Predict the structure.
Amino acid sequence: MKIPFVDFSESYRMIREEVDRGMHAVFEKGDFILGEAARKFEADFARYCGVEYGVGVNSGTDALYLALSALDVGPGDEVVLPTFTFIATALCVSYTGATPVFADVEPCTYNLDPASLEKAVTDRTKVILPVHIYGQAADMEEIRSFARSRGIKVVEDACQAHGASYHDRRVGSLGDVACFSFYPTKGLGAAGDAGIVVTDDTDVYERLLMLRDYGRKGRYDHKIKGFNSRLDTLQAVVLAAKLPHLDEWNRMRARAAQTYRDLLCEVPEVGLPRVAPDRTHVYQTFAVRIPHRDAVCAALQDHGIGVLIHYPIPLHLQEAYTEMGWRPGSFPVAERLCGEVLSLPMFPHITETQIRTVCDRLKEALVGR
Ligand SMILES: *Cc1c(COP(=O)(O)O)cnc(C)c1O
């Protein structure tokens, strides 16, 4: 039995009619750019997060880049971020001309370690950019109080954590600004690239409206050098159809995670993800830690089990950032994780039979080593 890493065909069946109807309405009206469905989705998603404003953009990467731009991050500034994340978290900083400053992560949640901030922060630090990795929030209370005492802004990279909560507040409402990706495989995914920035800050909101739309206020009245980065109305139709299902789909992911735990808890080589008591995990990614990871990964792929590695190389050791001169050993927790993590198939409608097969093959691969 082949098992895909993700399979959203069942999720699609639940929204198909609404998507068809919504798409049809957009074609009839012709409001493809910043149309009614896009405006409504921005407001609905902001409300879902528990904040005032949402600004839809082209991608999660653009959401991050425009959010930093709206906070006036630029050359000479530094932005502190975890080295254990997807590269877009650092690229958006580089696009602004600022310097990404890497920091290590916690060994239990894999999120930015608040204890690493003291060393990473300087007089030039303008923003701390924690990532809610795999679907579990970073320790935002610690990070925020550290940042507040130094006049530093906090931007959430929430691209993997739609609907996750921390102290009963949703991700998206935990920093000054938060950025989400709607890349198709994310917890809330469009039918192509899309993203959103959410915030309670009226000034940031107004700048974002200009930044994503050629810097304009009126039709041909351009106040700043903005970009063309808008959420397509057609993508908003897909997202609006999915949003009411998001909490249920996250509960289904959590049930699947529990099944994995039940089946793997007695396998001593397998390190299971840990969830801090004050948080809910939405399992965008269900990653285990195992010895001989590369051999086990290859064996599972040979048996048709869709597994992936998030991520094999920490950002400070990526070729794209060699100019910064980081050496192996700089961030030991992240480096160790990169050698051990393996992401197992995870999607809302994964069946218990599929999970059993994954676990059986994983146990065989561990023994076969
Ligand atoms: C997916 C992702 C991004 C980038 O989002 P795109 O929509 O693919 O541009 C940024 N940060 C993290 C942590 C991500 O997982």
Remarks:
- The chain has a mean pLDDT of 97.
- The pocket of pyridoxal-5'-phosphate is lined by residues 59-61, 85-86, 88-89, 131, 157, 159-160, 181, 183, 193, 195 (CB under 6 Å).
- DSSP finds twelve helices and 14 strands in the chain.
- The first helix runs from residue 9 to 29.
